[in-house]
Each structure stands twice: as structure tokens, then as C-alpha cells.
Amino acid sequence: MVVPHDARGRPICLKIPVSWVYTALGLALFSFILVGSSMIYSTLLSRKLVNYANTLSRSEQQQVVINSFSDKTVKVGRAIDELVRQDNELRKLLGLKGWQSKVKLSTDRISSEVKAGKVSTVFEEANDKLAERNKSLEELKQWVSFVRSRLASTPSSWPFYGRLVSFFGYRSYPWRGVHTGVDIQAYRGAPVRSTAAGVVSFVGWRSGYGKTVEIDHGHGVATLYAHNSGYAVKTGQKVRKGQVVCYVGMTGWSTGPHVHYEVRRYGRPVNPVAFLNLNIFTASRFWR
Ligand SMILES: [Zn+2]
Question: I want to staple 217 with a disulfide (CB 3.0 to 4.6 A). Which of 24, 148, 153, 239 is the partner?
Fold first, then answer.
């Protein structure tokens, strides 16, 4: 019942069933719960959104790092490729066989593998490739040291630089027969130098040869210097290439001061002209 407070008004009478009151109260409670829970939910959601945004920006930063990492790995790959190229070029220059890499690691693959997160695969392959190069360089080093030692012990220069006055082989003057060396014109007392490193195997008089020096160079090769006036070495002495071993004279059967120079392979005299001017490449044909 509604009662107005002014005198003219009449009280209004409303009949409301009790169930309506309960319904209204229920609706109010329901809407209160609805609003409250949606507020809580939206708070949680916004927090999640903030987290998501943070994660997104972090992953972007990581992507930047991965990209720069990929670029750097590609650079490393290129450097390795360059190393392989130089290695093979060096081998070609030295007349050695090229080296085909068994590890396939192209720069295109590096960047895709790194982006796919297979960084460790790329590094393992790069490591394998470097190990291959190490082996190759080790081989080159061994080859160079072999070549150095063989070249040093291969007769490859003139015992005395002068005019060749008599060649190797059959001749009729001054004595008929086979000439077992070459004669190089020189002045008396001129220094005669060993044409390779070796060990003096003989110093003394030989019939026809006069004062003679023989040097053993190993690998079945020896040289002989004859018609000397004096010696500069003793038997058993080690000599370097270019070391003075005796002095020019005309002892033995000699018509004038000259060096009689012989090169022997496994005891047999060969033409010394082939051994007068050798370098690594021309000398290497005698190393088999
Ligand atoms: Zn001679």
C-alpha cells in the first residue's frame, strides 16, 4: 500500500504476489554475481594479454639474435669454403691431387638450418670440414718437408759455373772411349762446390781421375769431382749443397784445368747435364 502525504491524495493499494518479490531478489543476486565474475575474468584476461605481449616482444628479440647468428654462421661457412679453395689451389700449384670435401656444407644450407634451429648440426659439419682441412694441411706440410729434403739431396746445380768443354758419352778426343761425366772449364784453384747435400764417401787419388772427391747423397745418388789440385773436406764429413769440397787442378789424365763432374745413380754414371739446373718440379722426376 502507498500512502501519499498530501491531503487530497488517496492511498494506492497494490497487490504483489510474494513469488514476484523472490524473483526480483533472485534476479538482483544473479546480476550481481554476473557482473562480479565478469570483472574478475576481464582482469585475468588483461593480465594474460600483457604476458602475451611481453612474450611476443621477447621472441622478436630472439628472432633478431637468430638472424644475426645465422648471418655470422654463413660468414664462417664462406670462410671455410675459401680455405678449401685456397687449399686446392695450393695443391694444384704443387702438382698434387685436389681434395674433394666429403662434408656437404653449403652457405645456403647453413642459413636455413640455423633458422630451423639446427645450430648444432651446422657446427658439427663445420667442425668436420675444418678437421678435413687440418688433415689436408698436415699432408701438405709432410709433402713440403719431403720435397725440401729430397731437393737438398738431389744434384741440382753446377759444381763450378763455366763452359762445358766435354760432354757425357762416347768420344774420341783426348781419349777414345765413353766419357762418364762432363768437363767444365775452370781456372786452377777455383772452388768446386757440392751440387747437393750429402756425406763425403771418398777423398783421394783415383787412376785417371787424379785427386777425386765423391759424395753420397742418399737415395742411390752420388756425385764425383775429379782432376782437383786440393781438397776442402774429409771422408765421412757431412756437406751442405753449395759447400766447397775441393779446388780445380789438372791431376790425372787432364789436358788443362777443369772439373770432371759425374753423377751416379745406383753406381751407374748418368748424364750430369740433366742435373745442372734443377728446381722442385724438374728434380721431382728423379724421385720415383
Ligand atoms: Zn772428364
Answer: 153
| Residue with the three cell numbers 554475481 | 33
Q: Please check whether residues 141 and 209 belong to one and the same domain.
A: no
Structural domain including 222 reads: 164-286
- Which of 96, 124, 152 is the C-terminal boundary of a domain? 152
- Please give the distance, rounded to the nearest whole angstrom, from the Cα atom of residue 172 to the centre of ligand 1: 12
> Ligand 1 mean position to 259 CA, how many Å?
7
Look at the block and give the residue holding cell 680455405: 83
Q: Regarding beta strands 182-185 and 164-166, do their DSSP bridges make them parallel or antiparallel, or are they unpaired?
A: antiparallel
**Do 185 and 163 touch, CB atoms closer than 8 A?**
yes
Q: Is 101 exposed, middle or buried (0-12, 13-18, 19+ CB in 10 A)?
A: middle
Q: Left, alpha or beta for 122 (phi > 0: left; psi -120 to 50: alpha)?
A: alpha
Ligand 1 mean position, distance from CA 258 (Å): 8
This prediction has a pTM of 0.65
CA of residue 175 to ligand 1 center, whole Å:
10
In a domain, 57, yes or no: no
Predicted confidence (pLDDT) per residue in 222-270, tens digit: 999 999 999 999 999 999 999 999 999 999 998 899 999 999 999 999 9
